[in-house]
Design goal:
Helix content is 71%, strand content 4%. The protein is mainly α. A four-stranded mixed β-sheet has the order 1-2-4-3.
């Protein structure tokens, strides 16, 4: 066993151990508070609704525990177990080498996708159905899965081929060219998503004229936000969860409400939710996240450029041969084992952005509509009101419900 093998195994074990410890804290906290609604919510959420959210969190915790215990096994079998070497041998005779390399990477991720499929099926047709959220059918689930796989191939393979070509032809600083490719690809997907990708999965209908449309148009004019339209998405065909978002770049920006959200919230509350989402745009959170993501990608690709030159990187992960495709594949598989420890820092930044977006929404629509909307969303999505603070700090991109509501009540 090499030094890097030991480091890899220790990082993997530490990550699983931390997750299991935090999960147990979370489960204990939710179970302990299951029998009483937190005081701040007692006038808005009934005890049966609170208990449903607690039970939902506990069942999700059970599934997550199984995933935590089983998910490292495929990674270990592929790396130090020799799986990648075996798949690489199947592709080795394929010409040209760029096609063999991209085929190797696609094959490994196809295997991982198939291994993860039972968890996705259980989550959709057992867990979500048990709590009344699943509305998809096996046929639609299968079509969505196949469509996602085809999109991944159609969009991902050209990027992989471009990066492998740069690794082969662009010299020592190939990683900078690869970074430019990644930036261009990310921007292209953001631009195409609203009009070409999202409609493959859902139907988007322009929001009809009426009091709600007039209210939203007035909000957009007030804050100076130009979009390519306001749409209602048929989210109810797959799930009972509600949401709202905007996506796209430049003139392709779209505002989207789930139909389930429109059924739940009144006009003032929908305006508040939209104001929150637009707050992310006006406070430049989207741009900041893009810059941060770009910096991470640049550092990661530069690190890959260095690791690919060292035999201990391959040997430590159970790979006997060296190639650009193997280096890229190993990096994609193994880097999350180490970067997971950055999750609390990124989560803290995200929660700060949520507070800022809440403050923006309150300035535009008032405090009460925002609080009412959030309480209804917590209730209807069965979001637990009593997460463990450490678990939430490690995992959650949004502040816990009591903290968020308390902050809103102090916002002018």
């Amino acid at each position: 066993m090499t030094t890097f093998t030991t480091i890899f195994l220790l990082a993997l074990a530490a990550g699983v151990a931390i997750e299991l410890w935090l999960l147990q804290r979370h489960v204990d906290t939710v179970r302990r508070h299951r029998h009483a609604v937190p005081e701040a919510f007692r006038e808005r959420i009934a005890l049966p609704e609170h208990q449903k959210a607690a039970d939902y969190a506990l069942d999700k915790g059970t599934l997550y525990r199984v995933e935590l215990l089983l998910q490292p096994l495929p990674l270990l079998l592929l790396t130090i177990g020799g799986g990648i070497d075996w798949i690489h041998a199947l592709w080795q005779s394929t010409e040209p080498p760029l096609l063999a390399g991209s085929g190797l990477i696609a094959s490994v991720f196809l295997v991982l996708g198939l291994i993860g499929l039972p968890f996705s099926i259980w989550r959709t047709f057992v867990l979500e159905r048990k709590f009344g959220f699943n509305r998809t059918t096996p046929g639609r689930f299968l079509i969505d899965m196949l469509l996602q796989a085809l999109l991944s191939l159609a969009l991902g393979l050209p990027v992989i081929l471009a990066i492998l070509w740069l690794m082969q032809r662009a010299g020592e600083f190939w990683w900078f060219g690869a970074w430019l490719v990644w930036i261009g690809f990310s921007l292209l997907i953001s631009w195409l998503y609203p009009t070409l990708i999202a409609p493959l999965f859902n139907r988007f209908t322009p929001l009809q004229a009426g009091p709600l449309r007039e209210r939203i148009d007035a909000l957009l004019e007030r804050i100076g936000f130009a979009s390519n339209g306001i749409f209602v998405m048929d989210g109810s065909t797959r799930s009972g969860h509600g949401n709202a978002y905007f996506s796209g770049l430049g003139r392709q920006k779209r505002i989207v409400f789930f139909d389930t959200l429109i059924e739940t919230l009144d006009a003032a509350e929908l305006e508040a939710v939209l104001a929150h989402e637009l707050g992310h745009f006006k406070r430049r959170h989207v741009l900041k996240q893009l810059v941060l993501s770009g910096l991470f990608a640049l550092v990661g690709l530069a690190l890959l450029g260095w690791l690919a030159q060292h035999s201990w990187f391959y040997q430590g992960l159970g790979v006997t041969e060296h190639s650009n495709a193997l280096a890229l594949l190993l990096f994609l598989l193994v880097s999350p084992v180490f970067t997971q420890f950055l999750q609390p820092l990124l989560g803290r930044l995200s929660r700060r952005y949520e507070f800022e977006a809440d403050s923006f929404a309150v300035a535009q629509t008032g405090t009460e509509p925002m609080i009412n909307a959030l309480v209804k969303l917590y209730r209807d999505n069965a979001s637990t009101l009593t997460p463990d603070p450490l678990y939430s700090a490690y995992h959650d991109s949004h502040p816990p419900a009591p903290v968020r509501i308390a902050q809103l009540m102090t916002t002018d």
